[in-house]
Queue: 3 jobs
Job 1
Amino acid sequence: MERPRLRLPERVRAGDVVPVRALLMHPMESGLRLGPDGGRVPRRIVYRIACSFEGEPLLVMDLEPGIAANPYVEFAFLARRSGTLTVVYTEDGGAETAVEAFIEVEA
Amino acid sequence: MTATRQPFTATRRRVLGLAMLATGVMAVSARGATPAPPRIVVLGGGAGGAVAARTAKRLGGEAVSVTLVEAAPSYVTCFFSNWVIAGLRAMEDITHGYAGLAADGIAVVHGRAEAIDRDARAIRLATGETIPYDRLILAPGIALRHEAVPGYSEAAALTMPHAWKAGPQTTLLRSRLEALGPTASIVMLVPPNPYRCPPGPYERAALMAHRLKATGRAGARLTILDAKETFSKQALFQEGWERHTPGMVQWLPPSVHGGILSVDPATNSVETGLDVFSGDLITVIPPQQAAPIAVDAGLADPDGWCPVVPAAMRSPMDSFVHVIGDAAKAGEMPKSAFAAASQGRVAAVAVLADLLGWPRPEPRYFNTCWSLIAPDDGVKVGALYGEKAGGIATVKGFVSQPGEPAAERRRAVDEAENWYAAITAEMFG
Amino acid sequence: MRGYRLCVSRLVRPSTAAPGHGQSRRHFLRLALLGPAAAAWPGVSLAATERFDSEVALFTAGRPVRADGLNLEAPPVAESGYSVPVTVTSAGTGPDRVVRVRLLAPDNPLVRLATVTVGDTGVPLRLSTRIRLARSQTVVALAETAGGQVLRAEAAIAVVVGGCGFDLPLEPG
Ligand SMILES: Cc1cc2nc3c(=O)[nH]c(=O)nc-3n(C[C@H](O)[C@H](O)[C@H](O)COP(=O)(O)OP(=O)(O)OC[C@H]3O[C@@H](n4cnc5c(N)ncnc54)[C@H](O)[C@@H]3O)c2cc1C
């Protein structure tokens, strides 16, 4: 899998709303598509995106083949303390790729 | 200045005029002598200008003098330049000379026009020479607004080619593509509307991916960072990319990449609101506007494009000037060579009607854009346009559909090749 | 199967209500508008309706469904069904805080799009993603609040050219 892309503001104040936008380049092969040879292209999707802050789950998305290629998710959380945001992508077959970003929260 | 320039010159006319004034019988003499034919000047020898000049000369014959002013000694067509980038055509195949126009009796002046003196109705060349006109058909194409992408510039285009004006840039992009490794990453920046050839970037992506795959580099990835949320023939392209080069082309709209902030030629990277995208090859198609000659002459709106009156592509700012092709705001017509040529024919006929008192046919504009999704998979979109509520609007259109049979797609490729032969013959043949 | 694509659709305005509300009229309309291609495969929409109804039943688990408190934003017209942006929002906090969201596309071969479990983010829900749509339809979002209420929102999306990476129908069952 490719490297996931994630961007957070570098510095925020406590009480700010922090936008999280995460993208992974992935074909999200639906398993319902015909290949050039006329045969069914096997399913291979990212079926889970798990976002957590310092180990606390913020958002877990279970994806079906109806999510577009290059799965993208955007949400927000409240800045309460400094820490690391982690996003883990899990693909059919169990392969994982993750991205982390540290966010410094000023009092 | 070349030998193709014909000796109709302003000087001869002026001498004649002075002589007549001196005798004090100007009116009588003028009627008795053959008056000099009215002067049509076409600025820009591209798809629009070349077709306008030839249409005017073919229909007008000896009743008009037609001069074409073009900076370059030969013309490299942007159309089919994506085929060259993918190795399906050679540069020679898309390079054309102006000898055919001279043979028609068109005075071809190779020189850069520096300014249009609308008051004196004359064009001033960089050499200082002036060329007077009775009607000007302006077809100078586009200017690339490099500076609109922070970090990009004409110099940066040597590292991050645009290849949106065909010529050395086309050769550069082609050689850069050839040099890429089996798992290379390519990033392509696509501008906001309006711009030259709306489906062009997506055809280019398809053909670059095709070339990579055909040369054992299916592990390469091309990421399109678009300035738009949707684009021309989108579903056809997305389906085509997936079918022919699965997983190789990814398209991201601004709502996903977060907007393009800047490019950095030193590190070969693009910063967006979401992340930094780096690549082995970055190609930047910058935002565009009408060529400077038109803007400087005060013929453009604040948005940088030239408005026109739909009936004849005449400038609402100057009734002696018609603006055609990419520089013009032609309502719903896209900026294509097909459209420019169609506008060139309409403008030429309107100018002849003005100057010679000929009848004025109702204008009809056409366009068809063919795009290759693979060498044997072509799609098309086209329309007939007419005047509607003060603008140019679609009367009737057609577009290819996903899932068409292969034979139909093959036929569209043949049509594209026939069209190329026909339009270049009309321009230069 | 080649050349016979579920994805291809012309611009057909979706009905304003998802299946379960006047579906027979809607079904008839679709057949009329799409012509022979759709008529040749009459089973698809009915089967899809059943799958949709059972998805809704699974999520609600017999609880009443509130039509307020949840918002689904999407473009009314999507040029291509390959990637359509959708955003789910809710102003609810405390017991009205959304803890789970499910997105459904009633007329896709696979009705369920995604399920999102929301932790303690400290802010009202605002969630965006991009979905595939096989054709014009009304997309549905269901949500569950911390207090156990079920909310529902819909957005009609007209798909100019359906696309989706779905060439094949689901085998019934
Ligand atoms: C990659 C690509 C693919 C394309 N594919 C297609 C396609 O398949 N089909 C299609 O229909 N269109 C296609 N196009 C679009 C097409 O090339 C343009 O729409 C077309 O060239 C516009 O014609 P024009 O006459 O307005 O301008 P141009 O063709 O750009 O001609 C303008 C001419 O004016 C000259 N000029 C400008 N300023 C001056 C000056 N001051 N003094 C003297 N001369 C001057 C220039 O040298 C130039 O020769 C494509 C474009 C690109 C970039």
Job 2
Amino acid sequence: MANTILAILEQREGKLKKSSFETASVAAKIAKNLNLTVVVVAIGNDISNLEEVSNYGVSNVTHFKNNVLSNYSSSAYTKIITEYAKEISADYLITANTSFGKDLAPRVGIKLNAGCLVDCVKLDVQNNEVIATRPIYAGKALMETKLNSNIKLFTIRPNVFKPEENKVEYNLTTKNVDNPDTSTIVSEFKKAEGKLDVAEADIIVSGGRGLKSAEEFKLIEELADALGAAVGASRAVVDAGWRPHREQVGQTGKTVSPSLYVACGISGAIQHLAGMSSSKYIVAINKDKDAPIFGVADYGINGDVFEILPKLTEAIKLLD
Amino acid sequence: MKIAVCVSHVPDTATKINIAATGNEIDQTGVTYIINPYDEFAVEEALRTKEKEGGDTQVVVISVGNDANKETIRKALAMGVDSGILLKTENKMDSFGIAKALSEEIKSQGCELVFMGKQSVDFDNQIIPQMTSALLDYSCVSVVVEFKLEGQNITCEREIEGGKEVVSTKLPCIISAQKGLNEPRYASLKGIMAAKKKTIEEKPAVETENQTEIIGLKKPPAKAHGRILGTDSSAVPELVRLLREEAKVI
Ligand SMILES: Cc1cc2nc3c(=O)[nH]c(=O)nc-3n(C[C@H](O)[C@H](O)[C@H](O)COP(=O)(O)OP(=O)(O)OC[C@H]3O[C@@H](n4cnc5c(N)ncnc54)[C@H](O)[C@@H]3O)c2cc1C
């Protein structure tokens, strides 16, 4: 029998997250290269868009169902995944490096005696082995690495692997879970007021100390609104209390790789660059022509944010 | 109760990282080390919990590494931690190895509550707290920004995409600390003096075979130098055009 790769999906509020399609698609690709069977697993109550996963080259879906499991429970989820991986003798496991995947994967790794390589930005198959590339030192270096354990677990950085469409048959197996171990469980989700989270956004508009005050940050918010982007911030601005910590980008904030990152009034300290320099396109607006942010920017305007931002927002709003 | 706090010794975040000639580690020239920034939140929360619990509650700091780690252990002692343990090794352990060494020590110390930083800012794995808990069969809540202990019951808030999860669990437990959990105290002069007198117990770390193998390190590809399009808003139309037609991101 062929070896197996188990792809772990993530649902939130009854819907698969976009990163789950990335997981499925990468699993399908590795399976093709290593001649593996893919099994996909999701845990939760009703999952409205579960079938969509079959658009990304994976057919066999197992849904562990119980209404208390609509919220994440590290104890229950670890047990279910571990037992299922043993049952199907999974040789590889893969999931997304989201808050969920980061929390769950290492626990499953220990229970299965599987090595873990997390936050991978590249997975290549060479001589029947998976070679992973992952950023270290907040992206100041890249490490090529592999696992020597029998069972191997990988988590992939969200937004890096493009899901490849490949519609296949959909075979769903639903298993009801009796008496899940909910000794550790999420009882409530407190949504943040902001619309989009920097970790999940495709476009981020970030502001730094150059914005001068919390009030002036509305210039950042307006541009973000016009672009459908998330608002980000430098640590200087978070420490000053102008913005909440969850918006901080950088070595002690979030590491992001959106397709577009607009840095306004941010100098580009090494700790900030570490969190955003892997963005696909970077725009910098700064009045200091020597600001290090220009060193990583694709396009820059060397001028005053208060003069430029309103005009930029206006121009974006005029686009169709 | 005995509380453990685990700390790692990492390159200063302002350090420029270069690759050593061997190709599979960083060049140590000019690299200064600090206590992992997230571990300061862990130390602070351990101390606050001790102050709240009172009685004979003790906090012990544990670090896996070599003699250099003593500096980081001393930093925690200066903040007010009672005693320190260095689990000594000259080997380069992976996260699994470190989790294994920590779990053995936590077990032998009988600590039922453990604080760690959510990640070490060197390898950025963010997995040791969860791994250690799985090895010990402890509960674990990661990326915590609010922590409350009442008897055996723990309620935490953990930061996730787009908000916070309220998590309930019980002791024994490992908490991984995120920025926002607290404001770490500065070590007082008295604390620094007292830390010099505290002994750091040294013992060999339990060694395990690494599960991961480093093939090589490299610098990320350097970005081609960008274009400065102008010095005021007259450059906006060109910027919008490039974003649309060249970058195709808007
Ligand atoms: C342990 C540690 C961890 C850290 N982690 C992080 C992290 O995760 N994220 C992070 O961001 N930082 C982090 N830092 C802090 C970092 O070193 C910088 O202090 C911080 O990023 C600076 O923020 P800033 O760019 O907003 O401010 P500044 O460096 O003060 O830069 C402000 C910029 O605005 C420009 N400016 C001013 N007025 C205008 C105007 N009218 N128009 C246009 N431009 C203008 C200036 O030219 C300047 O370049 C960390 C530091 C340490 C020690």
Job 3
Amino acid sequence: MSLQPTTLEELQSIVKDNQGLLPIGGGTKPALSTAFNGATRLDMSRLSGIIEYEPGEYTFTAYAGTPVRTIVAALAEHGQYLPFDPPLIEQGATLGGVIAANTAGSGRYRYGGVRDFIIGVRFVDGQGQLVRGGGKVVKNAAGFDLPKFMVGSAGRFGAFVDVSFKVFPEPRAYVTLKAVFASLGPALEAIYSLFTAPNEMDVLDLESLDDGRFGLLMRLGGLSTALPGRVERLQAFLNTKTEVLSNEVIQAEADAALWQQVNGFSWVPDGSHFAKVPISPKRIPLLENVLLSLNPSRRYTAGGNVAWLAVSDIEQLDMLLNKLNLPGLVLFGPPGRPFIGPRPGVSLARRVKQALDPSGKFLEI
Amino acid sequence: MDHQPFFAALQRIYPKERLLTKGVQLLAYESDALTSFQTKPSAVVIPESQDEVIETVRLCHQFGVPYVARGSGTSLSGGSLPIENGIVIALNRLNRIKKLDPEQRIAVVEPGVVNLQISQAADRYNLYYAPDPSSQSVCTIGGNVAFNSGGAHCLKYGMTSNHILGLKVVLADGEVVEFGSESLEGVGVGPDLIGLFVGSEGLFGVALEITVRLLPKPELYRTVLAAYNDLETAGNAVAMVVASGLLPGAMEIMDRLSIKAAESAVDAGYPENAAALLIVELEGESEQVETEFEEIMDVIKESGSYEIRVAKDAEQRLRIWKGRKGAFSSVGRLSPDYVVQDGVVPRSHLGKALAEIDRLSQEYGLDVANVFHAGDGNLHPLILFNGREEGALEHAEELAGKILKMCVELGGSITGEHGVGMEKRNYMPAMFSEVDLETMKTIRRQVDPKEISNPGKMFPGGEAPALKMTGMHPLEAKGIISRE
Amino acid sequence: MQHRIDIKKYGPRGEAMAEAIQSCVHCGFCLAACPTYKVLGEEMDSPRGRIYLMKEVLEENLTVEEAQPYLDRCLGCIGCMPACPSGVRYDELIVSYRAFSEPKRKRSLMDNMARRMIAETLPYPNRFRAAVASGKVGKLFKGAMPEKLGAMMGLVPADLPEDKPLPPIYPAKGRRRARVALLSGCVQTVLNPDINWATVRVLSENGVETVIPQEQGCCGSIMMHIGEEERAKKLARQNLQVFVPDEVDAIITNAAGCGSGMKEYGLLFKGLSEEAEAEKFAEKVQDISVFLDSLGLKPPAELREPLTVVYQDACHLLHAQGIRSAPRNLLSSIPGLTLLELGDDGLCCGSAGTYNIEQPEIAHQLGQRKVQHVLNTGAQAVVSGNIGCLTQIQSHLANRGVSLPLYHTIELLDWAYRRKAQT
Ligand SMILES: Cc1cc2nc3c(=O)[nH]c(=O)nc-3n(C[C@H](O)[C@H](O)[C@H](O)COP(=O)(O)OP(=O)(O)OC[C@H]3O[C@@H](n4cnc5c(N)ncnc54)[C@H](O)[C@@H]3O)c2cc1C
Ligand code: SF4
Ligand code: SF4
């Protein structure tokens, strides 16, 4: 069954009258957005559109069903952006979906992810009530930070109506430096030394290449006049402080195209299961070890702090993650089990669930 | 309530030097940095291990005794004000930095660690802990977590919440939960529990262990001081900088009174006679900063400033910041008492808000000093009064309330970083509907069914036992009702 | 902070106390700078807590006795003052409070006797020397409070150096650039008379004539510090009579505690007939390092061998008088000398007058802390502008089985000049 509210009131009465609801935005993350086991699709796409955007404020408020594409375009007109590179934009990801799944692309590295930019949310809870958390200003310490809590909530606690974000001025120019290392070890060592270096990067991605080699992708954003000098400096740093084999500068359209691909997940092989796994860089070798047998397409973003793994079978990955004590979130895969691996803190999450949705209108967390 | 068995149980955990019950000892804990509220607790415990904290919270839950966790007691909103018939859990001896891993840029610390100590420890790796409340030389990470504290340099990289990756907490009913990780992604999967806990003002439980992220120290700072003939022009200058598309690390404004106070406390070298002073600081990689600096100077030159100074070296920069960071306390030189407000307005309304504060200040006949985080619209009006005059506090509080209401009307918030605490709880309904508040309370009760963790704070009305300022409910005083 | 102190009750000092309390905004910035808070982590043992407790006592909500343990633990190091943005005069508050509370508190007979003995011996070099020399100190003090005095006497060497009285006038070499009067001090003259001699020699080298009033006595600071106000006044009066501020460019001291104490003479005599005179005196008081630094030092000669020293800030120079750069400038001007920093934010070493005796445990922890910092620097010697610090550090080094030479700043300068004379 699928329900599609067009107004807040409709949404509220749907929630009051139904059970087993799964709010859905653009449906770009099927493991999260496919209704299963008799759950009811709650299609939020009609609650869409920008409500308030004051460029001078660097904040906007929009309905949760708004495609991120729309937002990105509106922001770009004023040289502004969401620095965390929300993924799957071209495929139709909505704001609500990005929040519920907590997906951020490579740009998450420097200024943070979804949680670091959301400032307000209004949602309909399990009792059909409209609840607001946060506000519309960039800084706000009043009340519990429900907007942040909702990041990653997977539609289990309520249906978002509208959300407010802060945004940043977009760098006027970008350059990407791609460095190649003989194996994982030296690539990770390079990350560690870059971590304490003064060079500023908007992106620091680690990718596995052929023959056991690894690549580091460093994207620099800023004033165009300063960029060449910064790139040179970064190259010098890599040459003197790391065991880099070669490096390549990627600019202009090539740079834009590269990151569009990466953040659109177009590198993920068709039909594979695909999951996000927060990790710390020092645990990557462990993960790489156990992944050997699966040999997935994979990528590490945010300086080796988020693993994106494309595997053929999510069950196997679940087992491995449990062994490594790493939680994971499935984006592409069979419906019904988005959370794999251990679930730290879930007992606290369940208490909040009790408060927001005592009669279980939305799916279980 | 009969506390005897509870105290007996505490005595089994704590030796007598760490279980304070003498009147004189308790007196020292009766206020935080907001002295208009005072409540003497029944006891103060000084745990030295996480287990002792856990045990204590479990006992409080078992016996229904309220508690408040306390860091350095610098809360400006009465957040660490003790609860009558409750205990204070003073976390100052839980002050170990348990791990500092420069390669992953993280530190794992106990809650009593002082904010600045993390940066000091990380300094030799060229790293620092970014959130810098003005009180950073003394306030604790536990307190920062409870209040999601911010500082002048939170414009670019965010407040406390944006820098916490993992937490171990004991919830009010004694359950110990851990969430987040050493990953920059923090919780990453499932609802953001760190987001929920940070800023919860101690209403869910006590943070026992905190994983924070560190950042590389900016290679270069460029600090500009611009003097203006009136506050509004300075406010507009902020809007101009924001509109320029540059992202400074900090943007602060001080007005005439606060300049005077700061200047008499530290010789900060601020331009004389300025009605308003704007501090803009760029930080980051040197090439980028140098280029941005040229642009920002153009903007500031256009902004109507009559004198622009640039810090020539690290020492001058530090002096500028020392004046700014000591501004609140140095106002103590101008007036024996003050209330600080912490409202936020949309940045484009700064000029308007300042003009309105000025008008209110005249209407009430009270001096208001303004020193604030202009970059994010976070005002800090300090309302000066003399507490020895009958009714002066109430008069000042009334003015403060008007300012908060104005912030909300302009689309802002009643607090940007100091938290609601005791002080602003009655203004929460101006910002949130009854449903919003009820929902928050329900969440709280799910976590803290007996409402023993810092009760009386954040939510309007007194769910807490009596407090001096508001007084006990008459029925409660007669013993007819009880809200415990 | 609001208070309800009935100022009139507390005589001339009531105002100063109320003023200090009123200007405290309870912000807690001072906590991090307080050695006892560092060690104990308790609000009552912090400056803010102490101010609060004093307020409560003065408001008569608390008895002097109840508050006493926490106020006794205050080192009087004044580390809290520079940390306070609100400009609270903690120094005036604690000294005034101690003067007020001392007569009110109950002390054991032993305590009283010991205090009396301290008060009647320490300020008088002759008595002190005689007492130590004749072994009478042992007897005198031991009978009264054996364990506590053990601690104190541990700091006094078994045999004292010979007494080397200073002349009434020590002339300037070459053209006279200034004329000063020297406070020769009490305890220090007995323990190490060379410091005074080094002082007059260095002054002379720099064209300064030094007058040493022969009738002078102890400055009274120790007495102020422990709340013996009447005794302090008596001692100070003597000095007011024999020093003539108008006839000298400065009144020089080489002991940190004396300097900060004499700068408070105005407060000591507040509301009394000597007030104006005392203030005039206080204005002329200068630490030797500040005087020499602002006069402009004649270049000293290079040390025979390079020496790496660490400078220890005496609380009563750094915190109480804000003297930071002067001694460093002087030391750095000695060729061949490398100056290191302790990097401990000038936290008190725990010596603080009679603190070693009263609060041995905290003093011990602070001493150990300090020595650890000293050892971390790897310096060959320790320099300070105060003999109390030097003795404290020495004894804690000895505890660790380490021995390092310790010098007063002026001694190193003296060395360098004397070396110049030789070449
Ligand atoms: C002069 C001055 C300037 C200030 N400037 C700023 C500023 O620029 N920005 C800013 O944000 N704030 C500022 N503050 C406010 C204050 O310093 C912060 O709120 C700070 O985070 C409080 O830390 P604390 O250790 O003193 O906590 P406390 O005051 O002791 O406690 C604050 C709250 O935290 C709770 N708490 C403490 N530890 C824990 C724990 N481990 N687990 C759970 N709850 C806990 C307490 O129960 C209480 O509710 C300033 C304060 C002063 C006095
Ligand atoms: S720093 Fe000053 S104003 Fe603040 S609590 Fe300490 S003494 Fe009081
Ligand atoms: S004088 Fe020293 S010991 Fe006493 S309160 Fe101040 S800092 Fe602490």
